[in-house]
Design brief:
The complex is a heterodimer of chains A (about 400) and B (about 300).
Chain A lengths: L6 H18 L12 E7 L6 H20 L9 E7 L4 H13 L5 E3 L4 H13 L4 E3 L14 E3 L4 H15 L4 E7 L3 H16 L3 E2 L3 E3 L7 H10 L3 E4 L3 H13 L6 E3 L18 E5 L8 H14 L5 H20 L4 H9 L2 E4 L2 E4 L10 E9 L2 E10 L3
Parallel strand pairs in A: 1-2, 1-3, 3-4, 4-5, 6-7, 6-8, 6-9, 9-10, 10-11
Antiparallel strand pairs in A: 11-14, 12-13, 14-15
Helix pairs in contact in A: 2-10, 3-4, 5-6, 10-11
Chain B lengths: L1 H31 L6 H18 L8 H27 L7 H23 L4 E2 L8 E4 L2 E4 H23 L1 H11 L1 H6 L4 H26 L2 E2 L3 H16 L4 H19 L7 H15 L14
The chains are: A alpha/beta (about 400), B mainly alpha (about 300).
């Protein structure tokens, strides 16, 4: 039996092989030092993570507009932001980055928010030596993928520690249950860290209960958790499922505090409505911080987009600022030069001081916010700041 | 004990959802011997038409029982028309071809609705407005919401209603005759085209009602929501004996209980695998399902 029986099919396969091979050894044209600087943003503008995508796009847009209006970079060159939607799917994230690099010839990349999609796309950027800054992917492994991958947010081993400490010290919890999204590297990594830290503090955690992104019904697993009667529940997945989990937990008469990570920051969390009582998250920044840097950002964002910026928007804004700072210090947009400049970044951002360490991560404090439902909208109320050791 | 009871209630709530959809599968299969794979997607269309209708009526944020009824009926009417259109333009042209042709057409229609839905509605999940205020009833340590009670109630009423239509009315008799032998039924003066159109309209309207009801209890809706739920309902219909109305009900509840039972263990992520494992098992061991025995029993 022939593997590809039809002649047209055979031709297509051949064509595919040739194109792939050509893409692999292609010489990227180097930026000639004039015209706009092309920066790629790949984001989940549609699908489950649409809120992440929208916020990161708006944050980056605002930063780019501010920079261009202030005279641009590298002697008056403007930044041009090229945007690709990945439909919240990891395989599309990797395709989007391939397209941005090989066709749109971007010199640097901003993205993604969800760790799973950054993990899928980062190897492409690394292969082509195009520097990538992820604004909000907290999974530890993201920056381990290569020396062209940077991030400007804290990582999950720290976030898990913050949540565990807050639950144990501030909420006085001793027994905890954890719900994790088995499909998301972010949720799995954060769960691991929470379990490790909460146990180290002297608390008890039952075996994490798994679900998959998109599951519509959590009553069965919540009933099981109810039988264990824990003091707190950690829901380490993303905002869409978090809303349903909180709501169904309250419907089952479970009134204990429910805690989540920065993955709760998204529009669909509002679906939790009144059930969003006694819920807390760890986050990157707090919009009610009186620091003028934060307040200026909040004001210009509100004026530009007519809504309050969330932490994803703030991080994305910062990512562009860090990148532009690196362009200036490198004196060019050449990949290796920008990479070297990024490795020594130290920028005062909206979300705090962004100083790159040897592992291309930054060390930043986390805030704990109480999530509340007021007048038909979700509000994140600042509770405390926890610094890294 | 409390936990067990609660899990049974959870399982019943979930099972009633599958049962509502499985009833539509079974009815179309009963008459046409066609697995209408687009049925789960009609259920999705029901939820979306309800969503737009509820927003048009301004029900988002001000719950009203009357509004909820209007929305449900509107969605049912819309989907009944869609169901008839699907039958007229996708299934009728291939009715006299081998059965496999119709099956592949059904898969095509299903994909068309799913990905057409992504184009029209967008891939981002929407949240269905709370048209009726959510209330939780507690009995002992067992909790159930009014929405879930409503779903269970409607599933039971629909089952008896369908039994009545099929066995006690003229159109039901015509449906049974068409099911038994299309050609002979035609010779006896039955307008089989109309009977088949009616079957699709009824099945699709039920799917729409299911879509709206489920969206009330589990408010997250997206264009692919009918895919997995539809497949599970299909498993339920086969388990109960495809073509049998009480079978669809029993199959749905069994699948719901099984899924809930499994979710309660450490193997919660194997839920879908087990549901489809059941499908394979039942096809190997007892292809007719629990209730499906003789052709006469079939609708």
């Amino acid at each position: 039996m022939k593997l590809f029986p039809h002649p047209v099919l055979r031709l297509l396969v051949l064509l595919g092989v040739v194109v792939t091979a050509a893409a692999g050894c292609e010489n990227r044209t180097v930026d000639d030092g004039t015209g706009d600087i092309r920066v790629g943003l790949y984001a989940s503008l549609t699908g489950d993570g649409a809120s992440f995508g929208q916020s990161s796009l708006e944050g980056a847009q605002l930063a780019v507009e501010e920079i261009n209006n202030a005279g641009g970079v590298l002697g008056g060159r403007s930044i041009q932001l090229l945007v690709e939607d990945n439909q919240s799917r990891p395989e599309e994230a990797s395709n989007a980055v391939t397209k941005l690099i090989t066709q749109d010839r971007v010199v640097a990349l901003i993205g993604e928010v969800a760790s799973r999609r950054t993990l899928a796309a980062a190897p492409v950027a690394q292969r082509y030596q195009v520097p990538m800054i992820t604004p909000a992917s907290t999974n530890e492994r993201v920056t381990e993928l290569g020396d062209y991958i940077f991030r400007i947010c804290f990582i999950d081993p720290f976030q898990g520690e913050v949540l565990a400490k807050f639950a144990y010290n501030d909420l006085g919890a001793r027994r905890a249950a954890v719900l994790r999204d088995i499909q998301q590297d972010y949720s799995v990594g954060l769960t691991e860290s929470i379990v490790r830290n909460f146990t180290a503090l002297g608390g008890q955690v039952s075996d994490p209960i798994s679900y998959s992104s998109g599951d519509p019904d959590f009553r069965a697993v919540l009933t099981q958790i109810r039988a264990q009667n824990p003091d707190v529940i950690f829901a380490t997945g993303y905002y869409t499922e978090a809303a349903v989990i909180v709501r169904q937990a309250r419907e089952l008469g479970m009134e204990m505090p429910i805690l989540g990570g920065d993955g709760w920051v998204g529009d669909a969390l509002a679906n939790g409505r009144e059930a969003l009582r006694n819920t807390f998250i760890s986050n990157h920044y707090s919009g009610d911080n009186p620091d003028p840097v934060v307040q200026n950002f909040v004001a210009s964002y509100r004026q530009r987009f007519g809504r309050e910026p969330d932490s994803i928007a703030a991080l994305s804004y910062d990512a562009v600022k860090v990148l532009v700072d690196a362009f200036e210090r490198a004196g060019s947009t050449n990949g290796p030069a920008v990479r070297d400049a990024l490795a020594t970044s130290s920028v005062a951002g909206v979300t705090g001081q962004l100083t790159m360490d040897a592992n291309r991560n930054v060390s930043k404090p986390a805030v704990i916010q109480e999530v509340t439902w007021e007048n038909g909208a979700v509000r994140f109320v600042y509770r405390t700041t926890i610094d890294p050791d | 004990m409390e936990t067990l009871l609660q899990q049974i209630i959870n399982g019943l709530s979930l099972g009633a959802i599958y049962a509502l959809i499985a009833l539509g599968y079974t009815m179309v299969y009963g008459v046409l011997r066609l697995i209408n794979f687009a049925h789960g997607d009609v259920y999705m269309l029901g939820a979306f038409s309800g969503y737009y209708l509820a927003h048009a009526l301004g029900l988002d944020g001000n719950p009203s029982v009357l509004g909820a009824i209007v929305v449900t009926i509107g969605a049912m009417a819309f989907c009944a028309i869609v169901g008839m259109l699907i039958e007229r333009f996708a299934y009728k042209p291939v009715r006299h071809h081998p059965r496999l042709t119709a099956l592949i057409t059904a898969i095509g229609v299903s994909l068309l609705l799913e990905y057409g839905g992504q184009v029209v509605f967008g891939a981002t999940p929407r949240f269905f407005p709370q048209m009726i205020e959510s209330r939780t009833y507690a009995l002992g340590g067992v909790q159930i919401t009014n929405q879930n009670l409503l779903i269970i109630l409607v599933a039971v009423v629909v089952m008896f209603g369908l039994e009545f239509i099929v066995h006690r009315t003229r159109i039901g008799k015509a449906m049974r005759a068409t099911s038994y032998n299309l050609q002979v039924a035609k010779l006896m003066g039955i307008n089989t085209d109309r009977v088949i159109a009616f079957t699709f309209a009824l099945g699709s309207a039920l799917a729409a009602a299911g879509g709206v009801l489920v969206a009330l209890a589990i408010p997250r809706i997206d264009p692919l929501m009918g895919l997995m739920t539809g497949l599970k309902a299909f498993v339920a219909a086969v388990l109960g004996g495809i073509g049998s109305i009480p079978g669809a009900m029993v199959g749905g509840v069994l699948i719901g209980l099984m899924e809930t039972g499994l979710s309660a263990t450490a193997y919660s992520t194997y839920r879908d695998a087990v549901a489809f494992g059941v499908l394979i098992l039942i096809l190997v061991v007892r292809p007719a399902g629990i209730f499906g025995s003789t052709a006469v029993e079939k609708v």
